[in-house]
Amino acid sequence: MSVPTPSDAPIGYAYKASLIGSAQEFELTEQGLSWRFAGHAGVWPYADIAAIRLSYRPVSMQAKRFRAEITHRDGRRLNLISTTWQTVTLMVPQSEAYRTFILALHARLAAAGSTARLTGGLGRTVYTASMMVMAVLTAAMAALLVRALAIAEWSGALFLIGFAALFAWQVGGFVIRNKPQTYSFADIPRALLP
């Protein structure tokens, strides 16, 4: 996905990470990334942004939830989530606003000549560990399925097939989208944006 041409007009984004807390507000200005939440505020010049990690982070109440982790060169981090809490039982997607903000941030960084490290998905260690756990679970389910078929336990076999299909649908999408990768300002991974 290509980055749009940056404009000088400020672009904002806000979300509530929890129902009780205040909104976290972000704005792209000429000076840099402006942020404000929990009684704190600041501006990070674009040159001070050292890294961005995009990931897909679904939760039970919102299957289409994405996260951007922005790291300052001194190690501080800001997280942007593509959903916001509206009521006790409702988490609302803000897909278009989130996408617009993330693309504009990348455009501003590119225009500023940023050398920020751009990564997507999970870290390599976490991804490798999750793949190993999935392999063990797959082998265990396959062994149970073979056993169920061998003893003619058809209802058990059908249950295992159904469970495997649900598992592949739920966890497979998460794993596929969150494969570790690096990307450039000109090629932002589409799978990590709503």
**Whole-angstrom Rg:** 21 Å
Binned, the helix content reads 25-40%
* CATH superfamily heading of the largest domain: Pleckstrin-homology domain (PH domain)/Phosphotyrosine-binding domain (PTB)
Tell me the number of strands.
11
**CATH level 1 name of the largest domain:** Mainly Beta
* CATH second-level architecture of the largest domain: Roll
Query: What is the terminal-to-terminal distance?
Result: 12 Å
Series of H and E elements:
EEEEEEEEEHEHHE
Q: Average pLDDT, to the nearest integer?
A: 88
Structural overview:
This is Bll5862 protein. The chain crosses the membrane at residues 126-150, 156-176. It comes from Bradyrhizobium aeschynomenes. Keywords: Membrane, Transmembrane, Transmembrane helix. The protein has a 5-stranded mixed beta sheet with strand order 7-6-5-10-11, with helices on one face. Helix 2 packs antiparallel against helix 3 (154-177). The chain starts with 10 loop residues before the first strand and ends in a 12-residue tail after the last strand. It has 194 residues and is an alpha+beta fold. 35% of the residues lie in helices and 28% in strands. It has 2 domains: 11-121 and 180-192, PH-domain like; 124-174. A hairpin with a 4-residue loop joins strand 6 and strand 7. The relative contact order is 0.17.
Task: Tag the structure with descriptive keywords.
about 190 residues, alpha+beta, PH-domain like, 2 domains, five-stranded mixed β-sheet, four-stranded antiparallel β-sheet, 3 helices, 11 strands, about 30% strand, elongated
